[in-house]
Specification:
Layout (H helix, E strand, L loop, with lengths): L14 H23 L19 H18 L9 H6 L22 H21 L11 H25 L25 E4 L2 E5 L17 E5 L2 E4 L5 H9 L11 H10 L7 E4 L2 E5 L4 E3 L10 H15 L3 E2 L3 H11 L29 E2 L2 E2 L6 E7 L24 E5 L16 E4 L6 E2 L3 E2 L18 H8 L9 H12 L7 E5 L5 H6 L5 E5 L3 H13 L3 H4 L5
Parallel strand pairs: 11-14, 16-17
Antiparallel strand pairs: 1-4, 2-3, 4-15, 5-6, 6-7, 8-15, 9-10, 11-12, 12-13
């Protein structure tokens, strides 16, 4: 198969030529995922849970195919499902959210061959649609081909996230293939240094008619004036991070945030997850192999570890160091004059699978004075993801971004060696919980500018806030709360019944369900919109909603 592809210009071109381009891109994306799962040793490996807070890999093998069908049915492009059971089982549970129920007793996973057969049916269905659907240019949000592109780019995200899970499986459960051969370059790690980055204004976000596919959180606009700062010349290497370990940094609470220390204690972490200690020797886990420690490769850590390192190095050097914000990363990108995918002829860094299936030395890809501004590994930022002014939710994927607008998911920027499609573009905005592992490392900056956290939390999302107020706010116009009144009527009607299980359909943010739960043994709330459900779940977990606590409503 063709390993290197580029995402597609959706704003210009001959419609029939564009059809051929999308068809090729679709099949390449499907093939790429199949190639990834070839690294599993056998069918039993699909059912292992690489991370206890994530589903086994069989879920992700089915999830990307199910996504196409569920979105196309929702858009009424398809009027018939392929397998309703699969399209429910493999639909939800990708992110480690507090509402995920990962009790394995609740899942009866099908055999691998059944999922593979389903994937083949999906492939044939999408192939037929691409060939037969009317195609007009440009392709925007309302175009049927936008939904197909949504499925393609979604699958490319999962190529990367599934590769991280495969990397966490026991080594004897995976096989090293030529297609996923890692970088064999190792050497002495260069000494890092701080280089000046001049002040300037950056513009974040993109317009709705941007030429390439984007997720909802990428659209909108924000201008930020950046004060000059100094940035580390290289990403932090394994060797540079070793100094933090040797300084006993994993055992000094003073360097960790409260969240970080709690994670460290829970995990009993002593060093990064992909490091292996064998007596006096350090080894390193690539996606499918164990190799001698590549000291001049970038270290791969979660945000909490990166933050602790910066705090330690600040004390060691006596200067104020931290991770860059999203806007400061944009400043690095703008200063380096990097062409954006798909406009580059050849990738300027270790990205888009154009080099090897692993990181490579931190001094291999230079961008003016800095190295690895994009590619090699993602770079953690000090900024939780939020919405740009002008943000709008795509009606067919209303829970892509908004569940992460909670100040608990930090942005990663720049892409990694396996970031393809939308992921490898300048405007890509992906965010993960701070304890998550991706193919992600970091660089540090010296600045006296504080990080200002975003304030537009999930409960402030415009479509959710009115329902929070309607359900949990004060009575309006002297009329009793509608949701509570419904529950009271149901409770009165069932007073002589056993009250085992109640179902609240169209529950929105959950008031009726919570009122019923006062008397029923079990209450299930269903709603079409995950954004509304998430607010109810936050209420369940925190016993309040942020939008209401600011109004002093409890």
């Amino acid at each position: 198969m063709q390993r290197v592809t580029k995402t597609i210009n959706l704003q210009s071109g001959d419609p029939e030529e564009k059809r051929k381009e999308i068809l090729m891109y679709f099949h390449n994306s499907f093939d790429l995922e199949e190639k990834l799962f070839e690294t599993l040793r056998g069918d039993d490996s699909y059912f292992l849970r690489a991370d206890p807070l994530r589903h086994p890999l069989i879920f992700y093998f089915g999830h990307t195919a199910v996504f196409y069908i569920n979105k196309l049915v929702l858009a009424r492009i398809l009027d018939k499902r392929i397998d309703p059971k699969f399209e429910s089982m493999f639909a939800v549970g990708v992110d480690e959210m507090s509402w995920d129920d990962l009790n394995k007793a609740h899942y009866d996973w099908p055999i691998v061959e059944a999922v593979r057969s389903y994937r083949n049916k999906v492939r044939n269905t999408i192939d037929r649609l691409i060939k037969q659907l009317p195609l007009t240019m440009p392709i925007g949000w309302g175009n049927p081909f936008w939904i197909i592109m949504m499925g393609i780019e979604h699958s490319r995200i999962h190529v990367e996230t599934s590769s991280v899970l495969i990397r966490q499986l026991p080594r004897d459960e995976v096989v090293q293939t030529d297609f996923w051969d890692y970088c064999h370059e190792q050497g002495i790690s260069p000494e890092n240094e701080l280089l000046p980055v001049p002040s300037g204004q950056v513009k974040l976000g993109k317009v709705k008619d941007h030429s390439i596919y984007g997720w909802d959180c990428e659209y909108g606009s924000r201008k930020v004036n950046i004060k000059g700062f100094n940035a580390s010349k290289f990403l932090v290497s394994n060797h540079e991070f070793l100094k933090f370990i040797e300084a006993n940094g994993y055992h000094k609470k003073e360097f960790w945030t409260e969240e970080g220390w709690n994670w460290k204690e829970f995990q009993q972490a002593e060093f990064p997850r992909f490091w292996i200690k064998e007596e006096e020797c350090w080894k390193f886990r690539t996606m499918a192999s164990i190799v001698n420690m590549p000291w001049n490769w970038p270290v791969e850590v979660n945000y909490l570890e990166a933050k602790a390192f910066c705090n330690w190095l600040s004390k060691e050097t006596g200067i104020n160091l931290r991770l860059p914000t999203e806007a400061e990363w944009y400043r690095l990108h703008d200063q380096s004059n990097i062409p954006d995918q798909p406009e580059w002829e050849k990738a300027p860094g270790n990205i888009n699978l154009e080099y090897k299936a692993s990181p490579c030395p931190v001094d291999k890809f230079k961008f003016d004075d800095l190295y690895d501004v994009i590619g090699n590994v993602w770079q953690w930022t000090d900024m939780p993801i939020d919405a740009f002014p002008g943000f709008d939710v795509h009606p067919l994927y209303d829970d892509f971004s908004t569940p992460t607008f909670d100040n608990r998911h930090n942005l990663i920027k720049g892409g990694s060696w396996i970031s393809t499609g939308n992921e490898s573009t300048k405007h890509a905005r992906y965010a993960f919980r701070r304890h998550f592992y991706q193919h992600a490392g970091f660089r540090y900056i010296e600045t006296d500018q504080p990080v200002i956290l975003p304030e537009n939390l999930y409960e402030e999302e415009p479509d959710v806030t009115p329902y929070c107020d309607m359900h949990w706010g004060e009575d309006k116009f002297g009329i009793p709360n509608y949701q509570k009144t419904l529950a009271d009527l149901a409770l009165n009607f069932t007073e002589k019944n056993s009250r085992q299980h109640a179902l609240s359909i169209g529950c929105k943010v959950g008031r009726t369900a919570f009122e019923l739960a006062r008397k029923f043994n079990k209450v299930t709330g269903l709603d079409f919109t995950v954004r509304h459900l998430k607010a109810g779940v936050a209420m369940q977990n925190k016993e309040y909603c942020d939008i209401l606590s600011r109004k002093k409503v409890t």
